[in-house]
Amino acid sequence: MSAIEDKLKKLTPKQQTLLLLIIPVVMVSLFVYLVYMPESKIISELKAEIQKNQSGISKSQLMESKLPELKAENVTLQQELKLATDKLPSPTEGAGAPDSIKKTAKDSGLTVKSVQAGASVTGPDGLYIVTPVNVQVEGGYHDLGKFMEKLDNMTRMLAVSELDISSGKVSGIRMDLPIKFTVLAYTSGGGK
C-alpha cells in the first residue's frame, strides 16, 4: 500500500465524502479558469472580428451594387465638364478681357476711370484660370444696369464681385456715381 492509501484509510467517512466532492470541484474550477475562460475570450474576440468583417462585406457589396450607377454618373459629369471648359476662352483670348470690359463700359454710357488686370490664379487641377480685373467707372444706375446686362450676355465667363457704389454728384439732369468693382474673368487652364 502506498502512503496516500494509508492516509485515505485514516480519514473518517465524512472526510472521505467531502474529499470526493472537493476533488471534482477543484478540477472543474481549474478547467474553467485555465481552459474555458481564455478560450471563451478568444471566441468572443473572433466573433467580434467576424461581425466587423461581415459589416465590411455588406458595405462593399452595397458599394459594388452602386458602382455601375456611379460610373454612369462619372461619364455624365466628365461630359458636362468638357462642355463647360470648352466654353471657356483660351488664356490668349482671356488677355483681352480688360479691353472688352473697358469697351463694354463705354458702350453702356459709363465713364471709365481705370481698368487693371490683377494676378491670375489657377483653379483646382488646372481646369481654369481666374483673372481679377479691377474696374473704376462713373455713371448712373441705369448705365450700370446696361453694363451688367451686357456682361451677362457675353459668351466669356465673367463674374462681378466687390461692387462698391459711393455717393454721387448731380451734373445737370445726370447723376454721376463713383463705382468700383472687380470682374473675375475665367479662362481655360487646360486641366489634367
At the fourth CATH level, what is the homologous superfamily of the largest domain? Answer: Ribosomal protein S6/Translation elongation factor EF1B
Number of domains: 2
What is the CATH architecture assignment of the largest domain?
Answer: 2-Layer Sandwich
Round the mean pLDDT to the nearest integer and report it: 82
Q: What top-tier CATH class of the largest domain fits best? A: Alpha Beta
Task: Tell me the overall shape.
Answer: rod-shaped
The ordered string of helix (H) and strand (E) elements is HHHHEEEHEEE
Which regions have little confidence, pLDDT < 50, spanning 5+ residues?
none
Please give the share of residues in helix: 55-70%
Strand content of the residues, in percent? 25-35%
Protein structure class: alpha+beta
The CATH topology of the largest domain corresponds to Alpha-Beta Plaits
What is the straight-line distance between the termini? 95 Å
Contiguous helical run count? 5
Computed CA radius of gyration, to the nearest angstrom: 42 Å
Sheet having the most strands? 6 strands, antiparallel
Total beta strand runs: 6
